[in-house]
Amino acid sequence: MVAFRSSESSGRSTGLLLRCVLFSLLALGLMIIDKRYDHLGKIRRVLSIVAYPAQVAVASPFQGWAWLRESLTTREALRADKTKLEDELRVAQFRLQRYEALEAESRRLRALRDSTNGVGSRFIIGDIMDVDLDAFRERVLVDKGARDGVYVGQAVLDAGGVFGQVARVDQLTSEVILISDAAHAIPVQDNRNGLRTVAVGTGDLSRLKLPYISTAADIVKGDLLVTSGLGGGFPAGYPVGTVVEVKRDPAQSLADVAVSPAAALDRSRELLFVWLTPATPTLAATSLSTSSSSSATAVAPTGAATAPAAAAKPTAVAKPSAAAKPTAAAKPSAAAKPSAAAKSSDTAAKSTDTAAAPTATAPTTADQATGDGKP
After folding, report:
1. Distance between CA atoms of 182 and 158, rounded to whole angstroms?
2. Residue 135: pLDDT above 60?
3. Which of 2, 58, 174, 236 has its CA 20 to 30 Å from the CA of residue 43?
4. Measuring CA to CA, how many Å separate 349 from each of 262, 322, 342, 357?
5. Backbone dihedral region of 149: left (phi > 0), alpha (psi from -120 to 50 degrees) or beta?
């Protein structure tokens, strides 16, 4: 019985070994065939389609958590980037508003920068807090006031162009009157030909008018109106509006001109308060120094003529020869030479400003009259 069991165990081991070798050879053959002829590719593709749902089910929780975390982080980053880009865009638009006016001025051989020297680089951005609902008033309340340096009459712009002007200043807020208000007027000029006039509000947010344009004026539909800078309230060269309609009646002396504002008066939320830099006093200082130099030059001969008069005191009469010696104060002046004064008694009598000079040379004149100066 023991022998039977040993033979059975050895036969089972031999069978397992044989099957292992067989399966190994089969696997090796399949790998060789798949490597050389790719016959099992279709089978793998089918199996991958069958196994894909299981793979997705296993990976979904991890992928969902990573997506949620990335979405929250990305949302905050996008908000920060959006705010930063909006600020940069407003500043860029504010600075780019002058380019069209600069191009037109260069065609007329004038640099717009020469006429916008009063524009300073300082400005602040304020948000509109409230809008006046009065039908006859176009005004908004902004969250910048005297604490921020805002002052009455300060120019206010938005990303499109001139928005209005500060009408009232409180400590923390300020009231801005829009250019469309019926009580507001702004000096402008045609960017095409430089024609200057005044744009007046109509009470309509979408319309301004030019009431002082004659029917013969060179203004057409589509002309861009920019600030002229006259009056010092607004910087020159910033867009105010575009001419949308021109009506000329032969029976009237003035044309009816309608202008569409460049600023988004009914949509802007952020406004730019602009500080104007005072004009540099270079020209005035140059004129003043030139006038001072001219005055000094004009005064110099008088002082030189006075110097010998003061030097020629009556004590010098006793010694006529001493008068011929110019003192240190009289050396720079040609009028100090007594020979020039002694040439003619008529010239000495006519000179009233140098009365002391004839006194000093009187003995010399008398000596010439008597011959040698002896009695």
Report:
1. 20
2. yes
3. 58
4. 78, 22, 11, 10
5. left
d(CA 280, CA 300): 32
CA-based R_g, the chain, Å = 49
pLDDT for 356 beyond 80: no
Classify each residue of 239-259 as buried b or exposed e, where b means 16 or more C-beta atoms within 10 Å of its C-beta: bbbbbeebeeeeeeeebebbb
Q: Tell me: the pLDDT tens digits for 16-28?
A: 888 888 989 988 8
Assess contact for 342 and 361: CB atoms under 8 A.
Answer: yes
**Tokens encoding 71:** 């979405």
Please spell the DSSP secondary structure of 91-159, one letter per residue.
Answer: HHHHHHTTHHHHHHHHHTT--HHHHTTTEEEEEEEEEEEEE---TT--EEEES--GGGT--TT-EEE-S
pTM for this entry: 0.49
Contact indicator for 100, 191 with CB cutoff of 8 Å: yes
Question: What is the Cα–Cα distance from 356 to 360, expressed in whole angstroms?
Answer: 6
What are the residues facing 175 on neighbouring strands? 141, 168
* H or E segment and range at residue 169: strand 162-169
Q: How would you classify the pairing of strands 119-131 and 270-276?
A: antiparallel
Q: Beta-carbon neighbour count of residue 48 at 10 Å?
A: 10
Vertex 312, ends 310 and 317: CA angle to 5°?
Answer: 150
Instruction: Enumerate the domain spans of the chain.
Output: 25-95, 102-276, 310-349
Matching CATH number, 102-276, of 1.10.10.410, 3.40.50.1820, 2.40.10.340, 2.60.120.200? 2.40.10.340
pLDDT at 324: 38
Tell me how far CA of residue 18 lies from CA of 21, 26, 254, in angstroms: 5, 12, 116
Q: Kindly report the backbone phi and psi dihedral angles of residue 243, in degrees, each rounded to the nearest multiple of 5, phi listed first.
A: -70, 125
